[in-house]
Each structure stands twice: as C-alpha cells, then as structure tokens.
Amino acid sequence: VEATAAGAAPTESKAKGTKRKRLPPASEDAAERPPPSKKERKGQLVSATTPKEVAALPPPPADVREVWMTNLPVIVSEKDLYAAYEELGWEAITKVKWMQRTHAAGTSFRRCAYVTFATPDLARRACTLDVEIKGKKPKLELTNPHHVHKSLELFTQGWPTQITDKQVHEAFLLLGLTGITAIRWLPKKGNRLSCFLDFDSKEARDKVLQGGTLQYKGRTVLVQKPLNTLPSDQRTAADRSAKSCELFLDPCFKAMTNDIIQTHYESTLGPDTVVTVRRWQNRGWVVFKTHELALQASKMKPPRNPGKEQVLVRWRLNAK
C-alpha cells in the first residue's frame, strides 16, 4: 500500500472500512479524565460522586440503606427496579420487600415496596435520580428498616365513626401521651373505626401499650401490637383468639345502628362488654372483650332489624 500525501501509512482498520476508536489523551490528573461510560460502569458498584453532587444530596441518616418507594406501576417486578437503577451498579439493590394492596374485588397488586441498597450512599443517590418505571415516576423516601418501623407501630380499634386526626391527638394528650407521628385509618373508605399509629420512639409506644385500652367519650378503644410484628405461630394463635371474641350478624341493615346493637348486648352482659362493631354492606361483626362474653351473647336472642320485624338476624360465633 502506498503512503498518503500526509506521509502517514493507512492502517489495516482503515483499509477494511472500520472506524478506529478514539481514545482520550493520557492525563496524569484524574480530575481531567472523562467519566466512565455506562458500559464501563456496569458490573461494579458506583459509590463516588462529584463534590457538587455530594453537596446536593440530603443529609444521610445514620446507616440507612432502606428506601420506601411508592407510586409504582400496578404490574411491576424486581427486574424493572434493577433496570431503572442499573447506573448505580448491578449489585446496588440487595433486597425488595413488596407491600401488597388489594382491590375491592379481591385482586392484589403492587404499588409500593421497601428497597434495600448495598450502602447508605447508594440509597441517598437513588433518592436524587430522575427515573421512570413503565411511564410512572416513583417517589422515594429514606426510612427506617421495615422491622424497625413495625416496632414503632400500634393498632387501635373502637373509635367513633366521625373522629378526626386532631381529636385522636387530643385524646392522647389528655392522658399525657405524646409522640404520634402518623395515623393511618382502615378502611380507607367509609367510617373510621380502626387505625394504625406510628410513634417517634419505642418508649412512647410502650407507654401507650401499657393500658391495653383507652376510654374516649364513653367508648372503649382497644390498643394492641399489629399481628404482623409477631412470629407466624404466635400470629396464628392471636388471630384465632381475636376471632373467638366476635359474633357475626347477617343481615344487619343500616336501620339497626351500632348503638342499637351495643345497647342490646350490654343491657344483659353489663357495660363496656362490647369493644366495637364492624360493618360491611349488610353484615356486622360484634367484638366482645373476652371469648366467654361472646359465648354468652350467642345464647341471647339476637336483635331485630327496625322496621323489618319479620326478619331475624342470623348469628354465628366464630370458631376458636
């Protein structure tokens, strides 16, 4: 092959028509080097950022590697999360704990999850990335690990149906109990009877848990640990024990209010024997303090639906 006019001999790659990969000039200063490409970063953990990016990150909590992720698509998998945050490294995400949500029809779907990263720095960086998963932008929040979060939670039931969050805070303040950070009502639609309470410390939660019950405007509010904080065997036993204190009423029309049901049973069994009454459509569940009280109530004549005297309420005692 003859030399070109410039005096440089063409390389073999040029003769074949392929492009030569241009390399950046060697530099001793690492700051002048271009950032590694996405292909070069793949397969390794990326934990270092520029000083400007580090200054823009939120202050890190002490060794928090778990992120609470919401606003996810209805149909999503772990592979979708790994693909969205692959620039952090393929080993950045170490664990995904899905939180199932249920439609009224009974089908479950995924909309939020606890995502654990390999390092606290990766968790902080994930909160600053602008990514999309199947057209939706997830919302990320640094949070305590799932088991720590559950240790600061209590479940309460038996509140008046029209109570507000402010009244719940005032009810605990009157007893000298503070530290409530969040209130989540169940169910989300309909009357407010049961809710989860989040506390800022375990000491504040244990102080509320000591009494076991709370008196509010003549009603007895039951306070207990959530069942999902117990081991599986204890959870099953606790669930059976709770079901053994319930009396099932069907049909239970709107005209037969909770006050009518509560007065019917407490006039015979005594005051404060009914903890709460749960309603769903034309069915009701009367929760008593003990299994023995539920047995006594099952032997009583059931209440009648007002205006429909010919229709008796069928009752069934939940098996222990």
TrEMBL record:
Keywords: RNA-binding. Residues 1-58 are annotated as: Disordered. One of its GO terms (molecular function) is RNA binding. Transmembrane segments: none annotated. PANTHER family: HETEROGENEOUS NUCLEAR RIBONUCLEOPROTEIN (PTHR21245). This is RRM domain-containing protein. It comes from Eutreptiella gymnastica.
